[in-house]
Design brief:
seven-stranded antiparallel β-sheet, alpha+beta, oxygen-dependent coproporphyrinogen oxidase, 42% helix, homodimer, 10 helices, two-stranded antiparallel ribbon, globular
Chain lengths: 310, 310
């Protein structure tokens, strides 16, 4: 395959993942809307071009019955010079031209008992270097051990079936990545995270691509059962306020630490598409501490690394 | 004066500014509460110590009649090694021990017609280098030319009276500093910003300190008349939603770009005191554009540099 063929092939895998995931999210949105007697939300479509090269498709659902906001974006961009967020991690790429394509998604549910979810799958070329990356992680507001076990076991099965990456490594990487040093807590309960996965041969490329391709089905299997389990749980103002407060931490992580966000802002990406990851509404309260023993206080036990898949 | 005397003197100036400003903010809060028939908010007091050395006093008012949240913090911290946010600006300070003291404040009013306000006054020592910095800037949600003129004229008079810094320079510096490149707009309508103001002699030190000392009175004169002018203006859900949306930009600026915030997070500062600058509630909406010709759309004209002081 030529370089251009490879790029087009990977971009197509990302577009297929986007379509498959939107179908899954819209299905659960319809179920929730039916239950609530509301009209279901739909994903709108907005495409954008990047002045420096490339563009993307941002598909966003707002004010749905299940999802307060959900976005699934695909982009493919190229540039003359690798930005700092990349060469700081991989110094050899400094000064190189680059190509990047990926799919990323963030779901902010309305019901505080339904966890927020984030995932992305990405491919990068800089000079002679090419690599894949990806990750999937869950951010609940309330701790349910059975949800955590389901989520992490599904990811573990997926990773072990492909044997392209090592499960304990990508699990620990996720725990490490989604961490807020200034809060001394994880953003959520983790999942998997991998990066700089460079195929050594064309056979190896096929194996890695197959792994990435199955990401979309895995996301559906890992996340959607939790949405279905919790979307009808009754809640009140207390749970809503806690959800908005926890979303504040989500904003802090994404704007202060997240490499994808910083990469996007540094490369003059589409700010609306990049910041679609931010929640529709978030709250900050000075020196707030949940009442000891409350379900909100219990959440702290979930925000530290734990071997949920057993 | 010994080094320690100087530090103590400057720290005391910061503490006096804090007390004077809180008195001013509580006075206008009482007026607003009287007008609304509510109990006025009061500034609580919380002090904190930094494990690495130093500490501070965070004084925060929440859920007031006029101020949805207001915070006025003083801190004095020292450390063995200057953090990246400082040595990236001043390479000569790299590896040096440092001392820093300052007062900073952020006011998020309840009424969308009352502008948010931010200011800080700061002093820094790193090795042989010592300098002052400071700034005051206004972030309205709606554009009122008379408010902008009053605010900027008050700052201009103050700066010109002392002749310690050059007004056009510190005005332009503020326009440049409070800018969101990814949004291609200013955070608000600017004000003044200065940094690395290093006194050349002890006479010079006295002059600079006198300038900094008058900062608190200037803040009161520049900002409080605008609060009094607008706190009783009637508003509805539309104005509230716009205020929350504009606050999202405020969050983006502070977490992505603000040097003080990044310095605080990098130096293991008190995260509650640092992030007190974030609004109590903020909103994001995908690809939102105000209706052309509306007061919300008109705001864009105010978010570019303008010579308000004439």
């Amino acid at each position: 395959m030529t370089l251009t063929d490879t790029r087009e092939l990977v971009h197509e895998v990302m577009r297929e993942a986007q379509a498959e995931l939107i179908a899954g999210f819209e299905a659960v949105e319809r179920e929730g809307a039916l239950h609530a007697g509301l009209a279901p939300g739909r994903f709108g479509a907005a495409s954008w071009e990047r002045p420096g090269g490339g563009g993307g498709s941002a598909r966003v659902l707002t004010e749905g019955a299940v999802f307060e906001r959900a976005g699934v974006n695909v982009s493919a961009v190229n540039g003359a010079e690798v930005p700092p967020s990349i060469y700081q991690e991989q110094p050899a790429t400094r000064g190189q031209a680059y190509f990047a394509t990926g799919v990323s998604m963030v779901l902010h549910p309305r019901n505080p008992y339904v966890p927020a979810f984030h995932a992305n799958l990405r491919y990068f070329e800089a000079g002679e270097t090419r690599w894949f990356g990806g990750g999937m992680d869950l951010t609940p507001n309330y701790g349910f051990a059975e949800d955590a076990r389901h989520f992490h076991s599904t990811l573990k099965d997926y990773v072990e079936r492909h044997a392209v990456v090592d499960y304990p490594t990508v699990k620990a990487w996720c725990d490490h990545y989604f961490y807020l040093p200034h809060r001394k807590e994880m953003r959520g309960i983790g999942g998997i995270f991998f990066d700089q996965l460079s195929p050594a041969s064309s056979d190896d490329f096929e194996r890695v691509l197959a792994f990435v391709r199955e990401g979309a089905a895995t996301i559906r299997a890992a996340y959607l059962p939790l949405v279905r389990r919790r979307f009808a749980t009754a809640y009140g103002e207390r749970e809503r306020q806690w959800q908005l407060y926890r979303r504040g931490r989500y904003v802090e992580f994404n704007l202060v630490y997240d490499r994808g966000t910083r990469f996007g802002l540094q490369t003059d990406g589409n700010s609306e598409a990049i910041l679609m990851s931010l929640p529709p509404l978030a709250r900050w309260e000075f020196q707030y501490t949940p009442e000891p023993g409350s379900p909100e206080a219990e959440m702290a036990r979930f925000l530290v690394p734990h071997d949920w898949a057993g």
